[in-house]
């Protein structure tokens, strides 16, 4: 009787674990990504899926985020240097006022010259928030995702992203470990 009861408890526990795995997905370095979440594209036609042989850098920002605005010239410079090699996406997050975001893009047009611009439409209800931010554990911005061959190569802070990181990404040599080693080297 104890064996039957114990077996029943184990089966119930396994069922709960398996159902929890279906409810929650996680995004981290090395994870495959195929579809781009549903967003409103404010500049260029945008994408709905990642192409296998393309490289993407997704920069997360908001109009109210001072560190995001501070990182924009740096990201714009990288987008200019790697134009034609990497697709840059400036992804507005955690806002619901489309007019305010559109005006921000107009007022800061120089920052968006070489990147597509997307807007998620607001926190919690947004597909981007549900399918990327929460699963990746992103609780603050600015944040940057590097994607190569339909996999997340590295999730980082845009302030530490360098030409060297992106060149290694283009060459297919960037891993989370090599990326972190570059950051450490640059701190010295």
Briefly characterize the structure.
By secondary structure, the chain is an alpha/beta fold.
Q: What can you tell me about this protein's structure?
A:
It contains six helices and six strands; from the N terminus they run αββαβαβαββαα. With 188 residues, it is an alpha/beta fold. It has one domain: Glutaredoxin, CATH 3.40.30. The protein starts with a helix and ends with a helix. It comes from Chitinophaga ginsengisegetis.
Helix and strand arrangement:
Layout: H1 2-23, E1 40-43, E2 55-61, H2 66-81, E3 87-92, H3 98-107, E4 116-119, H4 127-136, E5 143-148, E6 151-156, H5 163-171, H6 176-187
Parallel strand pairs: 2-3, 3-4
Antiparallel strand pairs: 1-4, 2-5, 5-6
Please describe the biggest sheet, giving its number of strands, its sense, and whether it closes into a barrel. 6 strands, mixed
CATH architecture: 3-Layer(aba) Sandwich
What is the CATH class? Alpha Beta
The percent of residues in helical segments reads 40-55%
The number of strands is 6
- Which segments are poorly predicted (pLDDT under 50) over 5 or more consecutive residues? 17-24
Strand order of the largest sheet: 1-4-3-2-5-6
Q: Which percent band covers the strand fraction? A: 15-25%
Radius of gyration: 19 Å
Note the overall shape: globular
User: What does the average pLDDT come to?
Assistant: 87
What structural class do the secondary elements suggest?
A: alpha/beta
CATH topology: Glutaredoxin
Distance between the termini: 65 Å
How many domains comprise the coordinates? 1
Order of helices and strands: HEEHEHEHEEHH
InterPro entries: Thioredoxin-like_sf (IPR036249), Thioredoxin_domain (IPR013766), Thioredoxin_ResA/DsbE_sf (IPR050553)
Domain Thioredoxin: 12-188
Protein name: Thiol-disulfide isomerase or thioredoxin
Organism: Chitinophaga ginsengisegetis
